[in-house]
Amino acid sequence: MYVKFQYVDTSNCFYILNSTKPTPSIGISIPPTKKYKEQNKLHDPNSRIEKSKNLGVKFRPGVDYGNDVKEKLDYQIGKSSHTRVWRNGVLKTQNGFFRKPVDKTESGENTDGQSSSANAVQTKCSTKWCNNVKETQNGFFRKPVDRTEDKKKVGGQLSSRNAVEKVQTKCSKKWARYGGCIPVMLEALETVRNLDEALKPWEKSLTKKERTIILKEQVEWQRAMEIFEWFKRRGCHELNVIHYNIILRILGKSQRWGEIERLWGEMKERRIEPINSTYGTLIDVYNKGGRREQAMEWLKLMNKRGMVPDEVTMGIVVQMYKMAGQFKKAEEFLKKWSLCKCQVEECVNGAPRSGIRANGSSGSSVCLSSHTYNNLIDTYGKAGHVKEAYETFHQMLREGILPTTVTFNTMIHMCGNNGRMEEVASLMRKMEGLQCHPDTRTYNILISLHAKHDNIETAATYFKIMKDASLEPDAVTYRTLLYAFSIRNMVSEAEKLILEMDKKDLQIDEFTQSALTRMYLESGMVEKSWSWFQRFHLAGKMSSECYSANIDAFGERGHILEAERAFNCCREGKRLTVLEFNVMIKAYGISKKFNEACYLFDSMEKHGLSPDRCSYSSLIQILAGADLPLEAAFYARKMQEAGLVDDCIPYCAVISSFVKVGQLEMAVSLFDEMIAFDVKPDVVVYGVLINAFADIGSVKDATKYLVEMRNSGLEANAVIYTSLIKLYTKVGCLREAQETYKILQSFEAGADVYSSNCMIDLYSERSMVRQAEEIFEHLKRKGTANEFSYAMMLCMYKRNGMFKEAILNARKMRELGLLTDLLSYNNVLGLYATDGRFKEALATYKEMLSSSIQPDDSTFKSLGIVLLKCGVPKEAVGKLESMRKKDPQSGMQEWTSALSSVIGVLDTDCPDREDA
Fold this sequence. Notes:
This protein is mainly α and 916 residues long. The chain is built from 45 helices and 8 strands. 62% of the residues lie in helices and 2% in strands. Keywords: Repeat.
């Protein structure tokens, strides 16, 4: 019998891991020494509780907080997070394995009496025996195997080594963590294809644990199924629900849905009852495999069987909802789960626990792990419920669960995305206080948030702090900062990062690559932008999307030659898609190369490509905007033939272009053609036609389309009513104009300045001073009265002999800087000439010339009135006018000289009238 002597620690029981079948051992209880108590003080529950009080959290006795929390407390007490604890003369490492302690007095000698070092290189499978305990290279302990028993295990075939000989005797490092025979088994399964031969040495001795590990370590689903079926064929190998869970997950990852359904049926036949993790596995693999509806069916089946999801399954379901963007459903599921879990615990324990539920409400609560709290906080954050997320975070602290780096990352990300940057800083301080060290993701989040809030200096500072903390920036770090630099045209900073990335062999993603192309172009570094493009093109790794993004970058900024070169590079690499053609057509449109755009469009079929809806729409918009409606109509018809017209937008662009160039008949013809193709017009198309007929004063045609529009169930908008007011003003339909203006005023935005000016003009023509003044005062209160509003009121006052009001209006225009248009200057000049204000007339004329506004016949007609009123003969005024028409430049100088002389001489005799 193999006997081990060990201390028995009643507060922290632990076991030495053995190989396959444990050998009976006798445990003799020996009171722990003082030294042993001191060594284990850090792991005493009472000690942890005392320490947690200082940190502002509490520990519940009897609750396992996991290794992460314990290690954090150990660190806070003053030890490293990798503190090693010796118990009963055996070392417990961080991952839970035990190793034999090295006696420092004898560490210089090995078992053969020869000197050695702790770092000495040994044979990969070298072993040594100490006190009948075998120590392997990786430090694991297991029971020595009796040779006679071992021969029985392999059926007397040990000496033949028929299967094992095909496996190298070295222990595989990737499986060394398992210890025992498992590494050799896995090595055999990887090397020997025949399962009978590979597993023959252990055919009759495989334990459940070994079968579990063998299945779990399989990468290919075919091999996993082969081994699974082999176990079933050997009647001595019982397969339990855990084994089925493993194989279901492997099949799910490979999306072998038929095999999963077959195994589910097999479980029923074998009466293997699914457990919580079975449903969690099925929900997880179906959701990740893009079969969310089937995943929900598994959840329904689980609920139907009265099974409450455990914490892991709950996390899977919540994650499923989050992946679908259904954060509200995730939140509702969490609340229901929390309530149901509380009820189950009350039934089991007999008494409710007071506290806070997972949903933040008071009442009974459940004990959650840090992982679940993180999931819960993330769910609330993505749903935009910051308050609930904070309540959950504080509940976590109250429950004695120390926040992890993941917790803080989630909280920081949530606060930053909601613009609460002050709370981000507060969380960083709290993180430091709990000695929870930021990781690479923490800094990535901080860099991204500060860059997003246009605080690029702070983002760059965090990048430096990260490196100073010996944290290696990853590709995400560099890409985030690089993109932030590029969109701000920070060329030198961006290039410095590029050099670092090149040294680390980190790839620049295509999104950042195109952003840098734009950066160089915005900075006027066209040659450098081309070199940057070529670097990725020559590497041969650019996708179609990346080519199109670069072509678009060149084209949008008018660098058509570079855009063409990039397009040709894509064509040479035989990577042309419709996307490249579309952005190149757009580039030609921006550079006004309309023939090239049409030629490129027509050449798509030569490359085996068919134009898509975007291709047609882009070209039609380009041609229509360039006042080429006939060409645009040609491609609109081709688009219709291709069956790509699903709305009236392409037709609307062409109809507007016809109207713009004055070809109203062609616009109407195309509209009728569109109706014939059963393309439904919208309010915009009707608005274009109504406005076109309003411009020519055709009430009949405008009314016709207005009635058609209403009959089709469309309501007129403000633009159409404004067009109607313009029409009614033009033809003098006062009543219709008033009714339409009233409708416009009922809109939320009210009547605009254009329609109001039309009404002022209409009232002015009819000398309806009071009505015109009401609208004008309303415009002034709104602050929307413009140059034309004042000019029309001035004309109305002048026409009605209200010179005082007209003069005040003219001076107000000059104060507000509204004298900018030739028409306004002429109106003011006409007023001053009629009212005998010669000095002001001359000053206005000179101001007009200094503003580079060329006078017209109306201007000199008013100036002629000034000269005539000052006594200049009519013949002399006619002579000045003749000189102006023969030589405009010299003629204007003569007019200025004559006006200055006459008005200067008459300044004392004919002073300007005093203002009333």
